[in-house]
Amino acid sequence: MATFILIPGAGGAAEVYWREVAAELAAHDHTAISVEIPGDDPEWGLPEYAAIVDEAIGGRRGVVLVAQSLGGFTAPMVGGNGSVGRIVLLNAMIPLPGETPSQWSEATGSGEARRAANAAAGRSDEFDLVETFLHDVPEHRRPEMIAGDREPAATPFWQPCTFDAWPAVPIHVMVGADDRLFPAGFQVRLARERLGVEADLVPGGHLAAKSHPVEVAGQLMAYLAVPDV
Predict the structure, then answer these.
(1) Euclidean distance between the first and final Cα of the chain, in Å?
(2) Which residues are registered as beta bridge partners of 7?
(3) CB of 45 within 8 A of CB of 28?
């Protein structure tokens, strides 16, 4: 059975966000570890986030590292000595070596893609928590998500992602078909351009693990059958 290490996005409470996916993985006899990141603390940044994830991995080898949103900037900084056997990026930012999250937004055109998608759908560009993030999350799960949400500190957004190249392990990109923060078409293009990977679409928006946990967990487990080479 596999061990999944689950990294949240900016300001997210890992245990809350990944709860349903972790339960689904556990129901299939896998181990799922949700890693809490102090994303609201300005004293912490990308190097510390990576160290926290490494500590969570401990002495395990060949884990499946799953990163949501800003967690994509932590993923390539994690691991060594075979600790990470596979990486899955879920609605994630995909950095280049040395890039900062702030640079990523302009370099990739994520803002333009979001505005174009909003215009096509007749949505406003004004940020709204429900419309941007929670629109497809079941209403009974929304209060806990809102209560656990923390304002992300600016620190990591100005720090370079310090890695030379993405690890030589299988890398998969999972995209929420109705993501309103990073539109699906934008993510599919970015995965091709930066990783040479064809993304896999799953139902849901940016918080697909909360709105469609069975489908997300199913896709995660399906990746286990993909050959390492």
Answers:
(1) 20
(2) 67
(3) no
Which helix (H) or strand (E) segment holds residue 54: the answer is: helix 46-57
Rounded to whole angstroms, the Cα distance separating 222 from 71 reads 21
Q: Which of 17, 167, 168 is nearest to 91 (CA)?
A: 17
Pairwise CA distance, residues 189 & 184, whole Å = 9
pLDDT, one tens digit per residue, over 68-91 is: 999 999 999 998 788 999 999 999
Helices 110-121, 101-108: axis angle to 10 degrees equals 60
Torsions phi, psi for 219 (to 5 deg):
-70, -40
User: Residue 197 and residue 189: Cα distance in Å, rounded?
Assistant: 9
Backbone angles phi, psi at 227, to 5 degrees: -60, 150
- According to DSSP, residue 229 is labeled -
Element (H, E) at 220: helix 213-223
Backbone angles phi, psi at 178, to 5 degrees: -120, 30
Residues 6+ apart with CB under 8 A from 129: 146, 149
Q: Are 147 and 134 in contact (CB under 8 A)?
A: no
Tens of pLDDT, residue by residue over 86-133, are 999 999 999 999 999 999 999 999 999 999 999 999 999 998 888 999
